[in-house]
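Researcher: Re-running this chain for the archive, since the previous output was lost when a drive failed. Same request as before.
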Amino acid sequence: MQGHSDSHGNGSGDGNGHAHSHSHGPPAPVSRHLRKVIAAVLIPFTAAVIVGLAVLWPGGAPSHERTGVGFDRQTQQATVTKVDEVDCKSVNASGETPTGNTSTAEGSSAQQQATGTCKKATVRVDTGKDKGRTFTEIVQPDASRQLSQGQKVIVAYAPDAPKDLQYSVTDADRKLPMALLAGIFALAVVVVGRMRGVMALIALAVSFLILTFFILPAILQGSNPLIVAVVGASAIMLIALYMCHGLSARTSVAVLGTLLSLVLIGLLGSSFIGWSALTGNTDDNTGLIHGLYPNIDMSGLLLAGVIIGSLGVLDDVTVTQTSAVWELHEANPAMGWRGLYRAGIRIGRDHIASVVNTLVLAYAGAALPLLLLFSIAQSSVGTVANSELVAEEIVRTLVGSIGLVASVPVTTALAALVVSADRPGPQTAAAAEPARGGRGRRRKR
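Model: Regenerated structure tokens:
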């Protein structure tokens, strides 16, 4: 660390201001030789990604006739203008008191619908060709979603239904609270991250644009989901990493580590999705997609989701490991690549433990209702794991986690090799000469 104290000294000697500027400025670039080696790998890869984007660019999602099922319905925004309480017996189709077992969920619901108090809501359509039209909606006392006066809602439109039944409330309108939450998130990122936070938000916006205008439409048009996901994820990775962390050798090493880890995830995912006979068609939404676009490879879509879902966490791991190795080299420039690797991997082990746990808990949290259903049914662990719904999440989690674990030694080794194999050019060597005459060495990145 003597080089550090020299760089903060009074500037005695020939290199008075130069060493000080390197201590507080941005990282000095690596040698021209090393930049050429990195460019020889990344430039062809970037060119291939650009060609892939051009060849697979969809130009918009194909049109289809709406089925009126699930998300494939015509919807409009509306407002609840009035809510009256009425006797359920007077508004329900069956006015007879149930005679079944009221201890069950069905029996209890039937009893409440026959003897309880329902709500009769008047709803006004606010958008579309029927703007200003009103209709009534009966809300049962045991309904999970209750309506209140002034509430903004989403209504579905069924043009083939009788006029009085064409509109129905399907969901609450959450645009305002979600927009407010997004604004708070953006503000927090900018306040804490400053310019780096602004670039992160721009990179996030670009990622959503690629997902919306390239990945999803290209898959719907019948392109191979795996190829589309690889090209799209690579474009997101290049834009996000270089935009957030700058165009440098350090970022390039993180890009290479991420790329190699994505290749491993793709190979493992393809192998085990096929071996486990996972179809990717496990719920109503995927069933609807398959019904509307039967040419889509649903198992390939599952693998594409694994790759895209793993990318965000991979970026975090590879950037952190690369930065750790660079800082270790700066603290001790005499350390060889083996020493850098051993020190970097010790940091990586802590990162692995936290990241893998985070990934597993994230998937478990998303599948919590499904796991509760299996718990209620008192199914064995083997039965639960063997069901396609859960097996799909297990494969997704484990494949992604293996890629994350592998990214630590891969990226650490790459970073250690790069910083230890750096050959200073003539200008760098000349600039470093005064520092060698002092008590310590000039810091180099």
